Amino acid sequence: MSENKDQKFVYDFTEGNRDLKDLLGGKGANLAEMTNLGLPVPPGFTITTEACKVYLESGEAPAALRDEVSAHLAALEAKMGKKLGQSDDPLLVSVRSGAKFSMPGMMDTVLNIGLSDESVAGLAAQAGDERFAWDSYRRLIQMFGKTVLGVDGELFEDALDEAKAAKKVTVDTDLDAADLKKLVKAFKKIVAKEAGREFPQDARDQMDLAVEAVFNSWNTDRAKLYRRQERIPGDLGTAVNICSMVFGNLGPDSGTGVAFTRDPATGHQGVYGDYLQNAQGEDVVAGIRNTVPLADLETIDKASYDQLMTIMETLETHYKDLCDIEFTIERGQLWMLQTRVGKRTAGAAFRIATQLVDQGLIDEAEALQRVNGAQLAQLMFPRFDEAAKTTMLGRGIAASPGAAVGKAVFDSYTAVKWSRSGEKVILIRRETNPDDLDGMIAAEGILTSRGGKTSHAAVVARGMGKTCVCGAEDLEVDTKRRRMTVGGTVVEEGDVVSIDGSTGKVYLGEVPVVPSPVVEYFEGRMHAGADDADELVAAVHRIMAYADRVRRLRVRANADNAEDASRARRFGAQGIGLCRTEHMFLGERREMVERLILADTDDEREAALSALLPLQKKDFVELFEAMDGLPVTVRLLDPPLHEFLPDITELSVRVALAESRKDANENDLRLLQAVHKLHEQNPMLGLRGVRLGLVIPGLFAMQVRAIAEAAAERKNAKGDPRAEIMIPLVGTVQELEIVRDEADQVIAEVEAATGTSLKLTIGTMIELPRAALTAGQIAEAAQFFSFGTNDLTQTVWGFSRDDVEASFFTAYLEKGIFGVSPFETIDKDGVGALVRSAVEAGRATRPDLKLGVCGEHGGDPESVHFFHEVGLDYVSCSPFRIPVARLEAGRAAAESKGSDSR
Length: 902
Fold this sequence. Notes:
- It is a single chain.
- The protein starts with 9 loop residues before the first strand and ends with a helix.
- 47% of the residues lie in helices and 17% in strands.
- It is elongated, with a radius of gyration of 33 Å.
- The longest helix has 25 residues, at 602-626.
- The protein is of the alpha/beta class.
- The strands form six sheets. It has an eight-stranded mixed β-sheet. An eight-stranded parallel barrel has the order 24-25-26-27-28-29-30-31, surrounded by six helices.
- It is an enzyme of class 2 (transferase).
């Protein structure tokens, strides 16, 4: 982006507020908001996301930025009564990233900037603690070396381990000032050797280089991967927060912690978080030392604990949501370093939303916006069977719920490699760090032996909806030998383990699963009560009831038989949007289809169709009974006929072998001729859909007759069948007119024969670009459109789904060509534009045109919002996605109503 001369690139914490997240990032906006609330926030300032965008585009910081930073730094120095890097009493600052959307651990932070060989002595004198000063200095060199200069972090960790081993201690707090002085020397040598330069002694150089490093961290591989995973736009940039340092590593009366105003795993109210005495903030989230529960702070420092509880209540009431808080205590003085609306599990999201309604903090419309379909889908996953016989290995902290089973792997590379080969894996680490992100995404679940509910593994897993157990201290994880030891049991890489993110339990082997209570609720087998599962079900019930009240989109099911239709109805389906009749031609009926394909005469063809008619009719009778009173859209035969015949290679071999034995089967020979005749290079674009009905006399007429006779039988039995006949793959109105004329004639014949008046509607599936572009013409002959977005995506993009997803989609996703597969979420700019124009043209011709979608996008949360926006009447999806579609249809309606009111 081009630089504006009058543009302001730096804001003091006193100048911003929480509504400026686009400009100040989430962290900066919330630091400003807490400052405005009068909470104890260390003074500082924020460099805007606009400065980052200029830097990323041009490779240089804005020309005005240095002077603006200098002015704000001078104001900060005046406020603090000390200067950055001065030798006698130095001002130290942190440089921290902060994008609009939370990206925990994905971008860079550097603490203790301003320390040097000279100023470390001044800090020691000012604090009266030489050990603290040298500990802070070694932390700066370590973080700066890794983050700014690109030195391998393992080298610093190894040097720290060597220092502890030499002193025969296990934790870094047991190292004294002399040990830390030696460690600083070792760290500086590592920097000089690996970075090819000395560690910078000028404090302003340190700060400027750290700011550039934070800008650059926006485009690291892990940050880009996280954004793709969370669907965060890549052009937002990150803000940079420069904050005066406060120190939690000044001794036992100091410390650092992370707190939640409610349990992010369950949503229950209480005191949740982690605290670490004599430590700096990164120690907690990195999980390098096991923390104590936040509740223990009441005993350690009651005054700070009481003040923190008051601040937490203030923040939750102010933000009207679960807040995630970082704080530091410096010799008994509490400081707030960050707050944000906290990431939470799916179950916690539903519970918290309803709790806040009951507390009067939000209304039902806002509660609906606090949850989403992806979270509801997570709640529908199976859970471990508590009655199963298990071998328990240990127990950790239940950080992110779910039942995950897979082979143990001990590094991210192996997790990704095995996952791509089709293996389910559990990533096991002592603690995770941002470099493990790709392995965390690939794994079914994450297990760590260190860290708590606020560690990197826990926070990222919750954000992804991934099962996670942290801080399982009994597990000895040896990543170099690729094994985990628990007591006398050794788990080697490749051994199957199961982890329960709801209880924290870790099991050897595969534990069987049972249905989720939420699925049991949707199927009518569970009701809200008093226990934890029932409490969750009650929260889901309340939000779903509100979504159903406000949504405009109706939700139907894709179902091909009475069993699926009945399940869909229990899940809340308001009809069937797609019944694929080709599924009724499989199994024992395949021989009848073969007879139809092999028919040489009209009599043979009529005989084959007559044999299929009663079977088709029986299918439809059962379907109309299961969905009585609700619409049922039946798609006439769509796939190429060769799909109902034997495989060409297999049949050719069978015939060749038979001929060599001179006992060839006449039927096999005719079948082979038919297979060769029907074989197509690209059957998706060949003889299928409406084309079949036009070239095989009587085929569609038989299906229409079966539908009509089934509807008449059901109606005469006092039922209420509401059949809709859908013609597939239409590209021109003439095709539809010919088939409709034939269908109208058959329906009239059935009405006359049964003495029943049938109100069957006839429409088409819009799945070809030409159909979308000529929708106004096609609507003259169609009473409804159903968008087949699977095929429309294939024909718009020129993709054969079965081929491209396996061949190059992974590369396209990794390179950022796709943010998400166009088969998963509708491509609004291409496919979506055709849908929108077809809706407008169709309704211009026929204002009462019924419009729906029956591709897989009908159950995708983001796509449902698009279909609401363009004015469809319904979406249709597989039975298990119906609750998700219902919820998202409600959210779309509430969202658009909110936008209208604004």
